[in-house]
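To make the argument concrete, we let one protein speak, a sequence paired with a row of structure tokens, as a model reads it:
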Amino acid sequence: MGTETAPSPKRIKLDDNSARAEPGSDAPLDQPTVAPSTETEVQEGEQAAVVTAVVDSTPSLEEPEAERWIHLQFTWSGKQFKLDIAESDRVFDLKAMLQSLTDVPPERQKILGLVKGKLPPDEERLGDLKLVSGKKFTLVGTPQGHEIKDPSQLEYLPDVFNDLDVDFSANPAAALAYMNDQRNLRKIREHSKKLKVDIIHPLREGKRLLVLDIDYTILDTKPLTSGALPPHECARPGLHQFLEAVYPYYDICIWHVIPSQTSWIWLETKLVELGMLGSAPRNYQISFVLDKTCMFTVFSMREGKQYKHSVKALQIIWNHFPQFNASNTVHVDDLGRNFALNPNQGLKIPAFKDAHMPQSRSDQELDKVARYMIYIANTQEDFSKINHKDWRLIERALPPA
């Protein structure tokens, strides 16, 4: 098998007046995966910096194969049930479906007669269990109370913050496999169909889209949800200045996963208290808000092992608003795993925690993100060709504001 010749590095020179491609380059900063070079360092006192970048080709999505479905029957509490589930689904999905039919949560479910021996772990594909249509089994378990529940709890999504994270930009082949996974594609279609968006401020023609996580990205969630600090003290420093700086170029979507039985009412109250919505005089507007019901669970590899986590699939937004797509969307988040299905659009920043501490109050992350986002809005026609993984290097090479 032959090997491809790597494209020649493209050099971007940034001076005090503008950012432009050096003569001889055919595009500015395409897919800036920075090659190891002494030129990538910005030396103190220099008037200009040179960033060497290598263009990577992004593989296209494959045409998905037709899914195969399994018809199952089960008995619970003397009642007969039928369900259809895809071979690409996981044991996790079967448990979620059983919960939706019986209110028996996964931790209380005992499934008898579906397979020989112990039921495989959640990440196991049902197609690998070699089940035949018409298979019968018994479910044993006590249902939970019929109190008001957040609908998204049926998928028992993980916490919004923990130390388990995955860098999907580091393995393009694995990322492509996740994007082509039949189950994930079906979940996108299902969530796109049920998505209902309340437009807070009209979308503007010709603007790019900023999808902005809220939890530990633009505010410290823990003291906000507990009430330990006033909302304005939970905000990341420079929040309003950041939004005002990028608003001329981007419409803004807030995507949060704060658990709450009345999530939108609660979030709206907090956004008003933060001064992001309402009568506070700001030079920006929030266009719409999504919550964790628009997310679903996927299964990723981390250190050779599978684990499940929720994901923010931008295609759900793009299906609803066709003016937005991979070429004009940036997703800013503190969790790289949220980029699982759109790694090229993800811009990861460190989590903002301990808002009351002096080092947190001196945080300048949002100022740096604003400089980078304004730069690419002014210089890049197609965001899908950019690797945001190296955004810090690009931002450091920009001339002072």
Q: What stands out?
A: Residues 1-59, 146-163 have pLDDT under 50 and may be disordered. Residues 33 and 54 are 5 Å apart (CA to CA). The chain has eleven helices and 15 strands. The domain at 168-363 is CATH 3.40.50.1000 (Rossmann fold).
